[in-house]
Automatic annotation (TrEMBL):
<keyword id="KW-0812">Transmembrane</keyword>
<feature type="transmembrane region" description="Helical">
    <location>
        <begin position="42"/>
        <end position="60"/>
    </location>
</feature>
<feature type="transmembrane region" description="Helical">
    <location>
        <begin position="246"/>
        <end position="265"/>
    </location>
</feature>
<dbReference type="GO" id="GO:0005886">
    <property type="term" value="C:plasma membrane"/>
</dbReference>
<feature type="transmembrane region" description="Helical">
    <location>
        <begin position="215"/>
        <end position="234"/>
    </location>
</feature>
<dbReference type="Pfam" id="PF00892">
    <property type="entry name" value="EamA"/>
</dbReference>
<feature type="transmembrane region" description="Helical">
    <location>
        <begin position="12"/>
        <end position="30"/>
    </location>
</feature>
<feature type="transmembrane region" description="Helical">
    <location>
        <begin position="101"/>
        <end position="119"/>
    </location>
</feature>
<feature type="domain" description="EamA">
    <location>
        <begin position="154"/>
        <end position="287"/>
    </location>
</feature>
<dbReference type="InterPro" id="IPR037185">
    <property type="entry name" value="EmrE-like"/>
</dbReference>
<dbReference type="InterPro" id="IPR050638">
    <property type="entry name" value="AA-Vitamin_Transporters"/>
</dbReference>
<keyword id="KW-0472">Membrane</keyword>
<keyword id="KW-1133">Transmembrane helix</keyword>
<feature type="transmembrane region" description="Helical">
    <location>
        <begin position="184"/>
        <end position="203"/>
    </location>
</feature>
<feature type="transmembrane region" description="Helical">
    <location>
        <begin position="152"/>
        <end position="172"/>
    </location>
</feature>
<feature type="transmembrane region" description="Helical">
    <location>
        <begin position="271"/>
        <end position="288"/>
    </location>
</feature>
<feature type="transmembrane region" description="Helical">
    <location>
        <begin position="126"/>
        <end position="146"/>
    </location>
</feature>
Length: 303
């Protein structure tokens, strides 16, 4: 284990599992809420920022020196995170959890392509095949849900666009997060993302107040569970294991969300979903096993 990993309380992949479990719950909470998705997303991020304020190492601000380019990349990351929340959360209003979240599985492909084009970061053939297997499993899940989501193509399109947006966020974050403490980086991008949604609400004259106490409970839960224990942890892990590994783990989110939706929302769960889940989990397991071997070999070689 390298010095970067020793700074974490748990192994990076243990944190990754916690984060994936946390974000899988977000779709269920969103489905329970009747507030506009842009409002729920905005308060989700702003409440997260308030919670994080005491956790940020403010004393190090004097020592941080970001270039103009780094500030632009940081702003880009926050903007596309806000765009992701706006598009993906809205997609859940039009389609089922399984159909909406299946497009999240395309994220590692977008991230891998962007990382290669920008940073020349390569993936092995075996790793790419494992990734393809995991993605295939998620598409099998979606195919089994086609009878429900056939009339919800708009929701599927929103989810796809949201996945592209979060891939840009991951790639930008991988570059600039190394220059900032994790908590400070997360606070800045969450604040920018929340502001994006705030502007969207103002432009579209969506009410910002007048919601029932139950809705505020959902806003708080979205901030604490999938944002603090999910996206905040993902941000922390970007500098430890990279955007490709983080985005690969997120492929497991649709499987967990689908299972939760079956028990909590009575959404359909059939043979295709079961087979697809197995393929997704198997592909992810083999991918991370390959990564672990590569890390061990690199450590022995002193790389």
């Amino acid at each position: 284990m390298n010095t970067e990993q020793k700074k974490l309380w748990l192994h990076p992949y243990a944190w990754l599992l916690i984060a994936v479990l946390a974000v899988a719950i977000s779709s269920i909470i969103i489905k329970f809420s009747s507030a506009p998705s842009s409002v729920a997303g905005m308060y989700r991020l702003f409440i997260t920022v308030v919670i994080m304020l005491p956790l940020v190492p403010w004393k190090v601000l004097r020592t941080i020196r970001l270039t103009r380019k780094e500030w632009m990349v940081l702003s880009c990351a926050g903007f596309f995170l806000g765009l992701h929340f706006l598009l993906w959360m809205e997609s859940l209003k039009y389609t089922s959890v399984a159909s909406s979240m299946v497009f999240i599985t395309l994220q590692p492909f977008f991230v891998m392509l962007g990382s290669f084009l920008l940073f020349k970061e390569r993936s092995t053939i075996a790793g790419s095949l494992c990734m393809a297997m995991a993605v295939l499993g998620s598409f099998v899940i979606a195919w089994g849900d086609i009878g429900i989501s056939r009339e919800a193509l708009f929701g599927d399109l929103l989810s796809l666009l949201g996945t592209m947006a979060v891939a840009v966020y991951m790639i930008a974050g991988q570059q600039v997060s190394r220059s900032l403490p994790s908590n400070l980086y997360s606070l800045i991008v969450f604040l920018i993302a929340g502001t994006v949604m705030f502007v969207y609400n103002l432009v579209n004259q969506i009410a910002l107040t007048g919601y029932a106490a139950e809705e505020w409970m959902y806003f708080a839960l979205l901030a604490i569970i999938p944002t603090i224990f999910g996206h905040l942890v993902f941000n922390m892990l970007l500098k430890h294991i990279g955007a490709t590994n983080v985005s690969m783990a997120i492929i497991g989110e649709p499987v967990l969300a689908m299972i939760l939706a079956y028990f909590l929302l009575n959404e359909y769960l059939g043979t295709a979903q079961m087979i697809g889940s197995f393929l997704t989990i198997a592909g992810m397991g083999m991918f991370f096993r390959l990564r672990a071997r590569q890390t061990a070999v690199a450590a022995e070689a002193g790389v």
